[in-house]
Write a structure and sequence with these properties.
alpha+beta, 3-stranded mixed sheet, 1 helix
Length: 92
């Protein structure tokens, strides 16, 4: 197909960590939102090119990045034990 980008995300390396998490714009958004709002237990964001959970404050809000399907195959399960970021493994 001639319209597929040759410089797309598929050719990029997998990002396993963000060294300056406090500079990440969604961390800044969540912290700002918490200043003006009631308590929020979890912020969940998808379609980021890394997967991780990041505590915004001890025993308080947590920010979750679900990753992407190009490198991580991650999704979130929420049950009585709380949220967990899991990785999908193809059974084939």
């Amino acid at each position: 197909m001639k319209y597929i980008s040759k410089g797309g995300r598929l050719g990029e390396d997998k990002i396993n960590d963000i060294p300056e998490k406090e500079k990440e714009w969604l961390v800044q958004f969540a912290r700002s939102y918490l200043k003006d709002s009631k308590h929020i237990d979890h912020f969940v964001f998808g379609h980021r090119h890394f997967a991780m959970s990041y505590p915004l404050a001890p025993h308080s809000s947590t920010l979750h990045y679900l990753g992407d399907w190009l490198h991580f195959n991650t999704y979130m399960r929420i049950d009585e034990q709380g949220p967990a970021i899991l990785e999908y493994h193809n059974p084939d």
